[in-house]
Amino acid sequence: MDTAHAPAPDPVPTRPAPGHVDVWLVRPPLPGRPPADHHTPRPSGPSHASRPSGPGHAPLPPGLSSAELRRAASFARPADRAAYATAHTALRQLLGGYLDRPPAALTFVREPCPGCAGPHGRPAVVQAGGGPPLHFSLAHSRGLIAVAVAPRVIGVDVERLPSPETVEACARALHPGEQAELAAAPPGERRAHFGRLWTRKEAYLKALGTGLSRHPRTDYLGSDLRRRPARWAVLDLPAGPEHAAAIAVPGDRPDHVTVRWLPAGLPYGEDTPYGEDTPYGEDTPYGEDTPYGEDAPGANPGGTATRSPRSGSTITRSSR
Description:
3-stranded antiparallel sheet, alpha+beta
């Protein structure tokens, strides 16, 4: 296993080179608390009048579109609202940095669905002035958000590990080969094993452009690399003891995957350098459980790069 420290990130991210993937992690703020103990969100961006307020409603970060604000306001649970708002603001901040454009000025579209050609395929950002393509994928689960950026199509997924009861109930949705692997896993390892299977599957389906409209049972994403979809690379990511995460890209496996933390204050307009640790170093409960695999609101930052014997790709985590 190769080890190395991730280089200190630039104040503004630069486009990942061919063969490289950037993954950014951030924790959503706890409902009723600011994103960092010593910061207050700035009163900038869209009008505060369009944001939920009152008991249990934390201020939403600035820079969201009117459609994103409406979507955030539609969540009944404060934790889900905070996760959605933070995830989409972080996405805008990061893509704005990569593209050298104001985050609030970015326009998002949907690519054609590969199944029916309808306008509900992979999300994409409109890149004014041309330039090399920049692809992204966004995922969030309870307590952790992931944004993956690459010069080619990419999918990312992150999930909080489910309860044993949820594993048992959802296992029937897996490919028969995956079900057999899960059944053979020691009881104490089945939650983590299921998490790896499911995040690989969702990352692949996101990159494919179908999402879960393609049945999860269709494709094998288990441990046998020879049985996985041809001409695709699917890699597990470090995500701490309570989460699983994975990315999927078409073609050859990435040469290098860099995993960094985005400061919790940055989506709220705080001037914090990219790549520093978030203030939430431990997994934090967000209330009642939600069905596994659905969007709802980590990984613990480390300081090593590991070369997986299965993937061959170097995965670097930014050091504290």
